[in-house]
Design brief:
2 copies of one chain form a homodimer. The longest helix of chain A is centred in the last third of the chain and has 27 residues, at about 330-355. Chain A is α/β, with parallel strands linked by helices. The first copy, chain A, contains 15 helices and 16 strands. Chain A has helices at about 50-55, 65-70, 70-75, 80-85, 95-100, 130-140, 155-175, 195-210, 225-235, 255-260, 270-275, 310-315, 315-325, 330-355, 360-370; strands at about 5-10, 20-25, 25-30, 35, 60, 90-95, 105-110, 115, 125, 145, 185-190, 215, 245, 265-270, 280-285, 285-290. Chain A is globular and about 60 Å long. In chain A, the strands form 5 sheets. Chain A has a 6-stranded parallel sheet with strand order 4-14-13-12-11-10. The termini of chain A are far apart. The interface of A and B includes residues 86 and 297 of A.
Chain lengths: ~375, ~375
């Protein structure tokens, strides 16, 4: 018995985008799905009730951060991550790979794993495929990720190839070390930088290991958007139709829509929460910087087309005041709205798939939002 | 037609504490009442909906801060403070006096008013009784306060006496300058430091001006608790029975209960929100510091006797983690709980008045909470 099941409901005749549903031990979520990021067992600024209010069906949390603080054993003792953070819907955890490579100091990669110094207290740690599985098994998340090597961008073909091969060997070790496959679905991760041949190689090798879902990693790390789309176009055809496909770390409206068009089912990104905390607001007419003086006496909502709690109840002038005064409610409202904006966008994407017009929807959306605005 | 009406419902036979209700243009509130403080047009960390969820019936906001940022004229343009901050229940604003004396630099007091430099941008301002009225009229709060002089503690009798006399003259000017008495009730403020004769003198002079409510100011500024209680005991008998009495800047459980016992109807304080943001939690068994290591694996609620959102849904271990990780949800939950704790305490005080046993309730409460714990 597998932990999750992917149900393909419909394919968009105009684009090939997939409408689906993923069933997990903590309920189902509709795809294409955007997953808000709760790095440290909380989506920054939001309560679980508020996440439900905006219809978040699944969230992501970060293995590296939870391992460091408060520790996976404490969370296991608390009854698992769902109970610890009071979130009873699906959770996906990453493997810690990305953070080990991007946040830690003095990392050293060997076949065994990665040695690094903690970003919190400088303590030394060795992350291995087996440890990534142990931690995620302790957390009890519904979807867990293989420990992979995240190469920098740009990266030589030669190194990228050796890294792909290592990521495959690590994926094998993850599969072997995963102790709870009936309750937690382990996804394989396709790497390969911006090299088509390596993406295809990686996809074939990872798919051969037969995972209940597949992620595409190592994109949105600085490469041009066209390179990302090219990588999706060469990779997705090698992924099975009956498993969900997850594009990691992607959350701007253009990447979400273009990703869905290329057959991606799941996305995550800190973008809406991070820019929200800084007062940048995604609206149906593009981004606005709420601190700007021009909003000082703007008594309309952040986004006139949005029906979120923030837009229903507070003006741009008030939210600007909150940001200028350093008040917590300001970043709460901007975060709330941004997340709702992306979750609503995914609903519109799903609707456009049902109506076989996702390419038309993309063009309409960006004619107002502005295509180059992330 | 007066803006507000005080309804005295019952007096506690054991203590003389008053159960009442104040009717305002934005609805009624039960007394004795604790008013959460929304300094900058927001109760730090809380949304208006959350304040309603914990049954806050009236909040306070600070004239000095709103005058500085975003400005009273902008708030007037927004339709008043209620609409600006989306709070449709009663609001009391202070006069700015306390902040002018405590926050600003280089203040200079003359009969005209107080000249000072802004704590934000160093700009020079002259606060007068007339300006305090103009600002509060623009804000549109239901209860507004006279501009008074807040003397330091300790303070010589001679200076305190001259200050009391000036505060009376300023109160007369406030009454004259107040443009909206049918919609906004102007409270007089009794000063006089810790001198009984001056408190009595001030009470008589201020009451002679006939305000719809009276505040006792200049207490809880460093004097021993017994001095505060003595001042209440000598002042309250000089205040009329048919008007509400407000003890300014007071919010620890002992002051609230002892104040109610001495005939006070209204209180406000930043204490619950300020200490909440620092991770100090008021519980039925006294204060706890949620960051303490001993709570790392404590999977029970902050206060087992509390039914607030935080206590119903999250453990001490989780909230400690949020504070250690610097997550916003941590201070939100601690703030939420602390406010609910004080609002619930006032409900219990009102119940004890109904049952003619407020002194017994005080003894029972502090036998568990610890009397000297603020």
């Amino acid at each position: 018995m597998q932990a999750i099941r992917y149900e393909l409901i419909k394919t968009c005749k105009q684009t090939g985008a997939r409408l689906g549903r993923v069933h997990t031990p903590h309920g189902s979520f509709d795809t294409p799905a955007f997953m808000p990021v709760g790095t440290q067992a909380t989506v920054k600024g939001m309560s679980p009730d508020e996440l439900k209010e905006i219809d978040a069906q699944i969230i992501l949390s970060n293995t590296y951060h939870l391992y460091m603080r408060p520790g996976n054993e404490l969370i296991k003792e608390a009854g698992g991550l769902h109970r610890f953070m009071n979130w009873d819907r699906p959770i996906l955890t990453d493997s810690g790979g990305f953070q080990v490579f991007s946040l830690s100091d003095l990392r050293n990669i060997t076949e065994e794993g990665v040695t690094f110094k903690s970003h919190i207290d400088g303590s030394r740690h060795l992350f291995t495929p087996e440890l990534a599985m142990k931690i995620q098994n302790d957390l009890g998340s519904d979807i867990i990720m293989c420990f992979d090597e995240c190469i920098p961008y740009p990266c030589e073909h030669d190194y990228a190839k050796r890294s792909v091969e290592r990521t495959t060997r690590w994926a094998e070790r993850c599969k072997k070390a995963h102790m709870n496959p009936e309750k937690q679905a382990l996804f394989g991760i396709v790497q390969g930088g911006v090299y088509e041949d390596l993406r295809v190689l990686s996809a074939k090798e990872i798919v051969a290991l037969d995972f209940p879902g597949y992620a595409i990693g190592g994109l949105s790390v600085g490469e041009p958007a066209q390179d990302m789309y090219r990588m999706l176009e060469c990779t997705v055809p090698h992924l099975p139709e009956d498993k969900p496909r997850y594009l990691m770390g992607v959350g701007s409206p253009d990447y979400l829509i273009e990703g869905a068009i290329r057959g991606i089912d799941m996305f995550d990104c800190v973008l809406p929460t991070r820019i929200g905390r800084n007062g940048t607001v995604m609206t149906s007419r593009g981004r606005i910087i709420i601190r700007d003086a021009k909003y000082a006496r703007d008594f309309g909502p952040m986004d006139p087309e949005c029906d979120c709690y923030a837009c229903r109840n507070f003006s741009r002038a008030y939210i600007r005041h909150l940001f200028k005064a350093g008040e917590i409610l300001g970043l709460r409202l901007a975060t709330w709205h941004n997340l709702k904006f992306l979750l609503d966008l995914m609903k519109k994407v799903r609707k456009a798939i049902i109506d076989d017009r996702l390419a038309d929807f993309r063009d309409e959306f960006f004619s107002v939002y502005g295509y180059n605005v992330k």
